[in-house]
Amino acid sequence: MKPETKPPKPDALTLSIWEQVQHSADLCIKCNICTSFCPVHNVFDGFPGPKFVGPQAQRFRSPRELSVDSSLDYCSGCGICTMVCPHGVKVMEMNAKARYKLYQKKPVPFRNRLLGRSELLGMLGSPVAAIANALFNNGFIRLLVEWVVGIHRHAPMPQFSFETFRGWFKGVHQKSGRGVQSDKKVVFFHGCSVNYYEPHVGKAAVAVLEHNGFEVLVPPQVCCGLPMLSNAEFDAARKNARANIDSLVGYARQGYKIVGTSTSCTLSLKSDYRHILDITTPDAQLVAENTWDISEFLLELAEAGDLKTDFKPLDVTLPYHSPCQLEAHNMGLPAIDLLELIPGVKVNHLQADCCGVAGTYGYKKEKYDIAMAVGESLFEQVRASGSRAAVCDSETCRWQIARATGAAMLHPIELLAKAYGLPGF
Ligand code: SF4
Ligand code: SF4
Fold it and tell me: How far is the centre of ligand 2, averaged over its atoms, from the C-alpha of 216 (Å)?
């Protein structure tokens, strides 16, 4: 494994990215905007809100002191507080670090460690998908899992896929000779969800990129680390982050863009590795600067006149939820503009900040009801739309909305593949 290039040492006038996050607490003017937008605070009195557990508490935290307010554990990490703060206070990021400290004085529960290991769960469940799915769909087993492990019996468990995305890409797609060879290359970061649960989303991404003349490269990669990070396992998340940076940086140096269909994976590569895990190497920066959400990437192609527009009309109006993880990219809502390039497609943008699940948060027994209360206005809008299908960029949000409403959930890339009339879609 190639060693990371060492970052320049900060001098007295240069703050590290992490110090900038910590010091942003001083910018807080106590306007309470973050608190009024916090989806958890708005439904759960036990959580005093981002201003209280964030910048206000930060002033009393000593770097040598482990004790922090345990109500912080109810923060879902959705990031809305950071997005809405008019003074640039990095509330979510400082809360994530404080939660890490919270678990320095007590062990991370086994349940949280398990939820943080989405890749390990996928590796174990995928080869025996039929059995694993039957077990997880069994009410008695789910009750037992809730009782023994603490994962809520109604939490939206994804279905394992027997065929992994990597297995399909390396074994079926490339060996069949159907893969495009081109000077235009793009790197695909598939993440755990595409690899073990939704390979059809990755296949759609490959099909759309190849239709537009790109050769798709799928380098070695591990879980982005976000499930571990959000469960306060920073050391394990950092290990994964460094492995991904090492694997991807060579492509970034050659000028290839790294695209992903998972908004949380791409957000980790773009931001969380540096702002939360404090990996501030030039390699991390280069990977961050060259990472794109797939809709963001395709919309930029469209704006440059380089996206094929040989779409077949799809006469459909679809509700669309923009997940918090997507909005944290600060790139607007590219999926809407992209989908509306398809003749006949109308997108109904649902007015809800969060579906509640926030990665693994809504899976936890004690947080399930909070997550469902957070998502209720979104679920109601999906039901009221009368549509049997809805669109969302983030996998855990899709699973949560499908579980709550019964709607068939699609990633935007699946609609694009269908509109292009690509085989299999
Ligand atoms: S963190 Fe930002 S939004 Fe929240 S109270 Fe302070 S200034 Fe206002
Ligand atoms: S990250 Fe989300 S849940 Fe946590 S304090 Fe901020 S807005 Fe509230």
Answer: 36
Question: Domain 309-419 belongs to what architecture?
Answer: 3-Layer(aba) Sandwich (3.40)
Q: Which fold has domain 165-301?
A: Glutathione S-transferase Yfyf (Class Pi); Chain A, domain 2 (1.20.1050)
Q: Would you give per-residue pLDDT tens digits along the chain (425 residues)?
A: 444 444 444 443 456 666 777 778 888 999 999 999 999 999 999 999 998 888 887 766 666 665 567 788 899 999 999 999 999 999 998 888 888 888 887 889 999 999 999 999 999 999 999 999 999 999 999 999 999 999 999 999 999 999 999 999 998 777 777 788 889 999 999 999 999 999 999 999 999 999 999 999 999 999 999 999 999 899 999 999 999 999 999 999 999 999 999 999 999 999 999 988 989 899 999 999 999 999 999 999 999 999 999 999 999 999 999 999 899 998 999 999 999 999 999 999 999 989 999 999 999 999 999 999 999 999 999 999 999 999 999 999 999 999 999 999 999 999 999 999 998 88
Which one of the ligands is nearest to 367 CA?
Answer: 2
Question: Pick from 231, 225, 219, 217: which is nearest to 274 by CA?
Answer: 225
Q: Answer for the pair 70, 51: CB distance below 8 angstroms, yes or no.
A: no
81 C-alpha to center of ligand 2: Å?
Answer: 5
Q: What is the distance, to the nearest Å, from the Cα of residue 310 to the centroid of all Cα atoms in its chain? A: 30
pTM for the predicted model, two decimal places: 0.91
* Number of alpha helices (DSSP H) and beta strands (DSSP E) in the chain: 25, 8
Helices 412-419/294-303 angle, 10° precision: 50
CA 35 to ligand 2 center in whole angstroms: 8
| Atom of ligand 2 minimally distant from the CA of 91 | 6
Pocket perturbation via mutation, ligand 2, pick of 73, 91, 94, 353 by most ligand atoms within 8 A of CB:
91
Phi and psi for 409 in degrees, rounded to 5?
A: -105, 135
83 pocket-lining for ligand 1 (C-beta < 6 Å): no
